[in-house]
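Figure-free illustration: sequence to structure, shown twice.
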Amino acid sequence: MIEAPVRLKAIKILSRPPTVIRLPDEPILSCIERFGHWLGDLAGPLIAGQLNSDAKAVRTGPGYECRNRNRAENAKLSAHANGLAIDIMSFELANGQRLTIKPTGDERSRATVEALRTAACGWFTTVLGPGSDAAHAEHMHVDILPHGSSDRYRICQ
């Protein structure tokens, strides 16, 4: 259960006013600050620079979802169950194209997704995506759940 849930509908890109990135799936999170800054300060500008088109929307999962990790019956509680995680499926671009997290044959798109994923490792404690395991083959999971005794420990796969 989340104490102060926030339904996320859009993020302003402060470096590119009046650009706004919509979240049509309206994920619920317990803390939007980190995700909002990553999306607004890094992902939006990186996509615009790499693909010559602004990101206009991000397709996500629900964010908060009370379940175990990877929906496994005997697994630990997922960061989603605390509202500390979000899954990113794709970005919708202003030029009508879609940047999917699931790998495609387009090298430019793949390089952009890899740059987003690598940079996310500096912002989040867990980043999982295609190649990490079967459960993350088509999306990128990011969360801020602490691991171990240090806030510097990261799982980036």
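We now fold a second protein in the same way, so the two outputs can be compared directly.
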Amino acid sequence: MKRYLIFAALGPLLGGFWLLLVTTYMSGYWTDTNLAEVKKLFVVFATTLQYSYLFGVLPALMLGAVDDILFHIKRIGPVARMLLVGTVGFIAAELLYGSRGPDSGVIQFILYGLVGFIPFTVSSWLTHKIMDEPAAAKAV
């Protein structure tokens, strides 16, 4: 149960932030930046955070389920599990966001894929640190 709470709490938060960063980068917002524009970015992030959770909780729980399934396969280690969950997140985010906007190419492919890779790899790593390691310490 903790696994799903970690994914539901952390996935939309990090995913929404990375989606905002990638979208602003792809639109050319970061060509001339100053402190006021960075402040505006965080204001937009704070005001759209509710929508990140609204639309991001279900995919986060789905990837939490993938992480849970991979956890029960004993031949898959924690690092491989983190990379597999991150790869599934990368593919899902790329399929969902990759064709947005007029640009297309490798940079857009990688940046929109990182929107799924980063939050779910971090969530899987945090799940490993919180849940897996204490269970392994008790077993010894």
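Summary for the second example: The first helix runs from residue 2 to 26.
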